[in-house]
């Protein structure tokens, strides 16, 4: 996999995802925050929507993309999601998580040049979404 180093702008994107979930964390409702940066540099952040029926839950990445699109921003450069620790977990900080398979498909549908920030081999890196989705549908 071709990984890229993070930039200062990428760190700000991670911080935006952390801030949105830290403000809105609710056990059993919201524990993932996501942020997307558009090609214009604007950042949109959102939380995921948990549901009792898992299939109708909506991922944070989809919510962030939808928020940007709803504001008229349709061109994306980078996206990230972070998880907030639950009260029973012994972690104090959020951590970067990789997008699920459906999000990988969705992100690539809205931009084949979008980079995804994720943890890989113990490091936080950036990769093109198609690196995570070979032979896209």
Task: List key phrases describing it.
about 140 residues, alpha+beta, Cytidine Deaminase, domain 2, 6-stranded mixed β-sheet, 6 strands
Briefly note the structural class of the backbone: alpha+beta
The level-1 CATH class: Alpha Beta
Radius of gyration: 14 Å
- Second rung of CATH, namely the architecture: 3-Layer(aba) Sandwich
Strand portion, in percent?
25-35%
Largest sheet features: 6 strands, mixed
Number of domains: 1
> What is the CATH superfamily?
Cytidine Deaminase, domain 2
Individual helix count: 3
Q: Which parts are unreliable, with pLDDT below 50 for 5 consecutive residues or more?
A: none
Order of helices and strands: HEEHEEHEE
CATH topology: Cytidine Deaminase, domain 2
What is the average per-residue confidence, as pLDDT, rounded to a whole number?
94
- What quaternary form is this? single chain
Number of strands: 6
Terminal-residue CA separation: 19 Å
